Structure formats: structure tokens, C-alpha cells
């Protein structure tokens, strides 16, 4: 398997991305594994082993790893070695991502009394860095946010950014946080971080650390309403001339406390001078932010700027995967630019669509006839087709295991394979296999105390799709029946 130098360069770019930390991203593993003709699991294990090795001394463990891959797979070690050498050359030019990443190093050693309230490290590793990694474009939107903050006609206030699911709001916020180091909070539906209390305490703690405010811990009232936050904001803003900016992603995913006349997350109606809160939300009407000054900005799927950014993303992908896409481009009779443009139409301007569908085309996993008009139209149609394709492969297994398992995750939000198996009365092994099969649609979180990893549906758009999928009511009933049987109800 002699590799052309440019193929090796493309492969090593993928490896570099892996080494730079996108290790959780199965897609990357898949690309390299498929090209090298080895099993994905073996490659994952091998890369893990290599990444854990001492950088100075890595050649020996790396070589040993390759030999092990060759042993296990019966592959020829020569081409693997070539691949590794090309990857290492790339990796040498890239600074390793250290745990002291600039996004949160400032918050790494807070007063002990604040450590539990700060979510900066969680967001850095879970959201900011992963999303910032493959980030492209968005300069027009970034400029617009900055212009609003600098606009003297807006002495303080909210900058509300809206857009459909998967258009890239969270990614944009992650990039702003990474570039500008603005204080921040990311809401993830039905997670602990999306409560009003978690938000207030996180942002108050960030303010205290950044502005050296005179607190070593937060009083209980800091998490109850917005007053304590307002006090800190006023004090901090008065200490500096530059604007104080807070990013709040996905207010629509924040818990709704149902308190009339009070904003979600207890966001204050009025902000002190020079304080700006950049808020994102899916629909403008889905959640009304009540405030004195709001500057609204929409990321529209048809916006010229959105289309240009997405085109850049698609073209970069095509370039990076030229060889793997050669057959597709040829059979579709498309030059790559035409392909990219027509792909854009099918994506309905949605980033998440491109992120999911392009790798499937390149990997030959998408069932389509090679005609671009055959691609699913929009994200929802993509989910629907994926669902149908998965079922067609083995309807019985799908109906009895895969469907209840995935719908179970949708209902329980974050849980383990073990709990799903128990609550749905399914044998554990097939449940674990279903989880492995659907891993690209599940985010894996920190393991629980019992060592079992916790999973959640990877994106709200898929959760939305699942929540309208036939069968969800039946799965919900099975879960409720389990609870009913397991709990001794006090009848009195
Ligand atoms: N500018 C970008 N560059 C590269 N990839 C992007 C960009 N914007 C979005 N993406 C990709 O698209 C995916 C979806 O984007 P994101 O989660 O930011 O959308 P969203 O608007 O926040 O969606 P939701 O409303 O469901 O929260 C991301 O996981 C990321 O991989
Ligand atoms: Mg989002």
C-alpha cells in the first residue's frame, strides 16, 4: 500500500487534528483507519497509547504500537510506518494542547470557596476547545458583535443572536470566548449547567476571580436571584474603561423557572453602563428576552455571510478529502466547486448538516445514488433517512433494541447503558452494542462513580427529531412502568 506524498499529507493532517486533541471524534479515527485498512478500534487504542507516551521518547512506543497494529491486523508494517512518519513530521510543528489552555488558566486556581461554582474548565474542555478547533469564517458576525459593543449609542445592553438549530450559534460563541476571553456560560438542555442557580454562581465566581473582587466564596443568595450578580457587575464595570462582556449561549436551553416578569436565568432587565451580554437563542419568539436595550442579530440560513462561511467549510473538506471524494465527484459529474455549491443547497445553509453528511459521503456510508439531488434536504430529512437506513439493516434488532435504547437516552437525557438496560429490561450486551453503533449521535460524558460512562444525545436537533419519532410514547411508558414497579408508593 504505497501512499502518494499528497495522500500522506492529507492523512497526516487528520492525525495532527487527532493529536491536537479531537480524539473523541470518531470520524477522524475512521478516516485514518479506513485509509490504512485497519480496524478502527485497534487504531483508537494504538493512538491512545501513543498519545499517552512521553513526547521526547515517543518514537519507540510509536513503533511498538505500529508493530502491534500490524500483528493484530496482519497488515504490512511498512506503509503504517510511512504514515506515522508523515504524521509525526506534521505533529512536530504543532504545539501540544496543554491542560493550562488560555481559556481557563486564569480560573485554574480560584479561592477554594469558589472552585465548585466555576464551570470554566468544564466548558473549556467540553465546548469551547472542541468547537473552536475546526472553526471557519464568521468574521462578519464577529465584527457585528464587536461593533455593537463599541457603539456609543448602546451604552450597555444585550446582543441577541438567533438562528435555527445547527446553524452555528454555539460554535460562534465558543470562538468569541476563545479569542476574546469573555466571561461565559453555555446552557445545555436538561443538564446541571442550565439551571438559573448554576448560571448565576458560575458568572459571579468568574467576575470575582477576573476582577479580584472582595469575596472568597458566594453567599447562598448569589444563586437565587439576579441582585448579587448585578452588584458584582456594577463594581467590576466601574473599575475599568473597557467593556465588560458576558457570553450566554442557548438561553432557549436554559431551565424555565416559570417566574412571571423575570427573565430566564434571572438575566437583569437593565445592565450597568459598559456591561454587555451576548445571548444566543434558536428562535426570537421561542424565548422573549425582556430588557431595556437589545440589539438583535439573526444568522439566517440564506445570509450571504452564512452561505460564504459554509461554502468555505465544504470546500475545505473536499480539498482535504480529495482522493476519497474523487469517485463521488466523477460519478456525480461535478467539478468540486459545483459540487460544493449544490451541496450547500441541500444543506439548507446548515453547518451541522455539512458536518454530518460530508464524512458519510466520503466514507461511502451514505446510501444515495451519487446524484446530488438525492442527498437529504436539510438536517431533519437526514435524521429521518438515517433512522430508516438503520432499521432496514435489521428491523427486528432495531425495533427491539436500537430504537428503545436511543429513545431511552432521549427521554432520560443523560444516563448510562447499564441504566437503560435495567429500566427497559433489555440484556446489557446488545444495549452496549447499540450504544457503540450510535456513538456518533451520543456524547460521552464523565463516568459515574460506578465507572460506567454517561451518554447524552449529541445535539438538540437530533433530540427534537427523536421526540417526534413514532414509538417514543411506548418507550416512555416502559420507563414509567419500571419506576412504578421499583418505587414503593405511599398510598396515603
Ligand atoms: N463556523 C464554523 N466552523 C466550523 N464548524 C462549524 C461552524 N459553525 C458550526 N459548526 C459545526 O456545526 C455544528 C453545529 O453548530 P452549533 O452547535 O454551533 O449550532 P447551534 O446553532 O448552536 O445549534 P443549536 O441551536 O441546536 O444549539 C457544530 O458542532 C460544529 O461542528
Ligand atoms: Mg447551540
Topology:
Blueprint: H1 5-19, H2 26-36, H3 40-52, H4 59-73, H5 77-92, H6 102-105, H7 120-133, H8 139-150, E1 157-162, H9 169-180, E2 183-186, H10 196-210, H11 227-238, E3 244-249, E4 275-281, E5 294-298, H12 304-320, H13 322-331, H14 336-347, H15 351-362, H16 378-393, H17 395-412, E6 414-416, H18 417-423, H19 428-437, E7 442-444, E8 454-457, H20 460-467, H21 472-486
Parallel strand pairs: 1-4, 1-5, 2-3, 3-4
Antiparallel strand pairs: 6-8, 7-8
Magnesium ion (MG) is lined by residues 169-170, 250.
What descriptors fit this protein?
disordered N terminus; alpha/beta; binds adenosine-5'-triphosphate; 3-stranded antiparallel β-sheet; Rossmann fold; 21 helices; binds magnesium ion; 5-stranded parallel β-sheet
The name of the CATH architecture of the largest domain is: 3-Layer(aba) Sandwich
Which kinds of small molecule does this entry bind, naming each only once?
adenosine-5'-triphosphate, magnesium ion
What strand order characterises the main sheet?
A: 2-3-4-1-5
What is the C-level CATH assignment of the largest domain?
Alpha Beta
Elements, N to C (H/E)? HHHHHHHHEHEHHEEEHHHHHHEHHEEHH
Q: Report the count of strand segments.
A: 8
Average pLDDT works out at 81
Spans of 5+ residues with little confidence (pLDDT < 50)? Answer: 1-5, 11-29, 50-64, 89-100
Please give the radius of gyration in angstroms: 24 Å
> How many strands, which pairing sense, and closed or not: the largest β-sheet?
5 strands, parallel
* Terminal-residue CA separation: 74 Å
Q: DSSP helix count? A: 21
How many separate structural domains? 4
Structural class comes to alpha/beta
Shape: globular
Strand content is 5-15%
Approximately how much helix is present in the residues?
40-55%
CATH topology of the largest domain: Rossmann fold
Amino acid at each position: 500500500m504505497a501512499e502518494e506524498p499528497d495522500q500522506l499529507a492529507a492523512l497526516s493532517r487528520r492525525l495532527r487534528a487527532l493529536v491536537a486533541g479531537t480524539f473523541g471524534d470518531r470520524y477522524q479515527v475512521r478516516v485514518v483507519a479506513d485509509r490504512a485498512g485497519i480496524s478502527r478500534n485497534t487504531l483508537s487504542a494504538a493512538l491512545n497509547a501513543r498519545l499517552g507516551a512521553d513526547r521526547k521518547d515517543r518514537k519507540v512506543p510509536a513503533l511498538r504500537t505500529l508493530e502491534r497494529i500490524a500483528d493484530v491486523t496482519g497488515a504490512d508494517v511498512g506503509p503504517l510506518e510511512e504514515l506515522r512518519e508523515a504524521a509525526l513530521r506534521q505533529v512536530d510543528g504543532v504545539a501540544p494542547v496543554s491542560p493550562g489552555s488560555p481559556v481557563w488558566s486564569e480560573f485554574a486556581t480560584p479561592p477554594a470557596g469558589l472552585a465548585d461554582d466555576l464551570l470554566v474548565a468544564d466548558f473549556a474542555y467540553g465546548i469551547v476547545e472542541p468547537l473552536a478547533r475546526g472553526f471557519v469564517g464568521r468574521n462578519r458576525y464577529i465584527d457585528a458583535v464587536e461593533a455593537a459593543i463599541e457603539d456609543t449609542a448602546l451604552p450597555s445592553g444585550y446582543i441577541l443572536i438567533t438562528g435555527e438549530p445547527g446553524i452555528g450559534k454555539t460554535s460562534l460563541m465558543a470562538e468569541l470566548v476563545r479569542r476574546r476571553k469573555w466571561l461565559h456560560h453555555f446552557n445545555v438542555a436538561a443538564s446541571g449547567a442550565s439551571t438559573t442557580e448554576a448560571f448565576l454562581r458560575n458568572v459571579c465566581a468568574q467576575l470575582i476571580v477576573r476582577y479580584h473582587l472582595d469575596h472568597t466564596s458566594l453567599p447562598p443568595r448569589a444563586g437565587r436571584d439576579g441582585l448579587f450578580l448585578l452588584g458584582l457587575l456594577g463594581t467590576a464595570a466601574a473599575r475599568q474603561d473597557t467593556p465588560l462582556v458576558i457570553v450566554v449561549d442557548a438561553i432557549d436551553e436554559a431551565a424555565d423557572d416559570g417566574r412571571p416578569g423575570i427573565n430566564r436565568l434571572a438575566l437583569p432587565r437593565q445592565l450597568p453602563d459598559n456591561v454587555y451580554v451576548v445571548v444566543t437563542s434558536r428562535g426570537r419568539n421561542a424565548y422573549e428576552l425582556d430588557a431595556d436595550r437589545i440589539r438583535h442579530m439573526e444568522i439566517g440560513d440564506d445570509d450571504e455571510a452564512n452561505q460564504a462561511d459554509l461554502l468555505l467549510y465544504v470546500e475545505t473538506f473536499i480539498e482535504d478529502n480529495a482522493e476519497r471524494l474523487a469517485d463521488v465527484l466523477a460519478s456525480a459529474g461535478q467539478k468540486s466547486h459545483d459540487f460544493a455549491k449544490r451541496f450547500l443547497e441541500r444543506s439548507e445553509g446548515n453547518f451541522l448538516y455539512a458536518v454530518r453528511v460530508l464524512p458519510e459521503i466520503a466514507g461511502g456510508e451514505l446510501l444515495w445514488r451519487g446524484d446530488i439531488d438525492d442527498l437529504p434536504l436539510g438536517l431533519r430529512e437526514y435524521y429521518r433517512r438515517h433512522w430508516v437506513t438503520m432499521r432496514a439493516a435489521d428491523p427486528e434488532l432495531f425495533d427491539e433494541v436500537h430504537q428503545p435504547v436511543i429513545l431511552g437516552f432521549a427521554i432520560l437525557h443523560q444516563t448510562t447503558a447499564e441504566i437503560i438496560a435495567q429500566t427497559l429490561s433489555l440484556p446489557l450486551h446488545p444495549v452496549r452494542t447499540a450504544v457503540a453503533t450510535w456513538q456518533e449521535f451520543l456524547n460521552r460524558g464523565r463516568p459515574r462513580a460506578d465507572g460506567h460512562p454517561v451518554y447524552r444525545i449529541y445535539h438538540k436537533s437530533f433530540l427534537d427529531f427523536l421526540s417526534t419519532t413514532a414509538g417514543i410514547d411506548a418507550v416512555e411508558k416502559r420507563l414509567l412502568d419500571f419506576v412504578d414497579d421499583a418505587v414503593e408508593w405511599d398510598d396515603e
